[in-house]
């Protein structure tokens, strides 16, 4: 007797393969969305931990940590990130720091990866070799204000939550702690312009647009911004609200266009004032995560009005601004 053979026909097999392909096509974006949401949640938690650390520092020292402290001679300064280490369960790391010596002579500290300082979505979670020393980046910058950061000749500091030379106190936040930015996402290995010493005078007005800022010029660094969590300078551990989150600031070097930050004169490098366009940026779709001075965190869309964004960056500007 002939036996019947049960098997798929070629058409049936192709139909099954097509169905599986469609299901995979539907599943992959869903998985990516879940991963993105999880990364954004972890990023918010990192900012929350940084906020708690700053508050504990304030309780212990009577003020928030300064962005940096510089002498009259050319100098560098340890960052606010370094000063809050004990409140992030990194006391042993801070004990390695000799505050009387520059970080360039302390390679064990500079090369250490602090997980709380790295956004899980940042694609540049890696060290950077700078001559004989290795640095590790950060994905979070403290709010230095809108444009002017520091004038060493007049002592004037920025209008943000964190300032040069001295730390701010709760009483300094006349605009309210719940409506003043403390820190935001920034991108590690960010290109930037530096040391054009332009503008050179105190009280310079904010540039009218991105092109005007880039036109100030400077020495171009393709990938070293926000790569040194130990460095108190604004292009390494700070941000400013000169432009809305994720605003492109195009600068052409050779045949390549870079999305660029700007520091007119590095703090401690000269007697010229420091103006900065250090934009809040992230790999989160549509906006950035932010920390407010009261310790709350949230996501702010790129579409926020520029005047509202700048209003959130000032500690005592008198703006009537509600955090979106």
Largest sheet properties: 5 strands, mixed
Strand content: 15-25%
N→C terminal distance: 79 Å
Shape descriptor reads globular
Structural class: alpha+beta
Neighbour order of strands in the largest sheet = 8-3-5-13-14
* Distinct helical segment count: 7
Order of helices and strands: HHHHEEEEEEHEHEEEEEEEH
Oligomeric assembly: single chain
C-alpha Rg (nearest Å): 23 Å
**Share of residues in helices:** 25-40%
**Tally of distinct domains:** 1
Can you characterise this structure?
This protein has 324 residues and is of the alpha+beta class. It has one domain (40-313). 25% of the residues lie in helices and 18% in strands. It has helices at residues 10-61, 80-83, 91-95, 107-110, 210-214, 234-237, 306-313; strands spanning 128-130, 133-135, 140-143, 148-150, 181-185, 190-194, 219-225, 238-239, 250-253, 256-259, 261-263, 274-277, 287-292, 297-301. Strand 1 (128-130) and strand 2 form a beta hairpin.
Q: Which features would summarize this protein structure in a list?
A:
alpha+beta; 18% strand
In short:
The protein is built from seven helices and 14 strands. It is of the alpha+beta class. The N and C termini lie far apart (79 Å).
């Amino acid at each position: 007797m002939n036996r019947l053979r049960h098997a798929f026909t070629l058409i049936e097999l192709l139909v099954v393969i097509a169905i599986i392909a469609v299901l995979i096509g539907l599943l992959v974006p869903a998985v990516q969305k879940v991963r993105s949401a999880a990364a954004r949640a972890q990023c918010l938690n990192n900012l929350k931990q940084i906020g708690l650390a700053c508050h504990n520092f304030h309780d212990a020292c009577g003020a928030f940590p300064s962005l940096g402290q510089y002498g009259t001679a050319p100098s560098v300064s340890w960052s606010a990130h370094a000063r809050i280490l004990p409140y992030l369960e990194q006391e042993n790391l801070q004990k390695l720091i000799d505050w009387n010596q520059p970080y360039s002579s302390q390679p064990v500290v500079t090369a250490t990866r602090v997980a709380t300082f790295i956004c899980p979505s940042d694609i540049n979670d890696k060290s950077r070799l700078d001559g004989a020393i290795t640095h590790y980046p950060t994905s979070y910058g403290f709010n230095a204000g809108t444009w002017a950061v520091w004038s060493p000749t007049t002592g004037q500091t920025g209008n943000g939550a964190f300032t040069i030379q001295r730390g701010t106190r709760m009483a300094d936040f006349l605009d309210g702690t719940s409506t003043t930015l403390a820190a935001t996402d920034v991108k590690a290995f960010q290109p930037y312009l530096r040391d054009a010493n332009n503008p050179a005078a105190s009280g310079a007005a904010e540039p009218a647009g991105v092109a005007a800022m880039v036109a100030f010029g400077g020495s171009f660094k393709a990938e070293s911004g926000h790569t040194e969590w130990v460095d108190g300078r604004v292009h390494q551990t700070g941000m400013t609200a000169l432009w809305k989150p994720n605003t492109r600031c195009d600068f052409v070097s050779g045949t390549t266009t870079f999305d660029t930050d700007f520091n007119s004169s590095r703090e401690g490098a000269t007697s010229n004032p420091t103006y900065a366009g250090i934009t809040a940026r992230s790999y989160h779709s549509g906006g950035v995560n932010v920390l407010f001075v009261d310790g709350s965190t949230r996501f702010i869309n790129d579409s926020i009005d520029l005047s509202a964004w700048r209003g959130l960056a000032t500690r005592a500007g008198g703006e009537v601004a509600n955090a979106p």
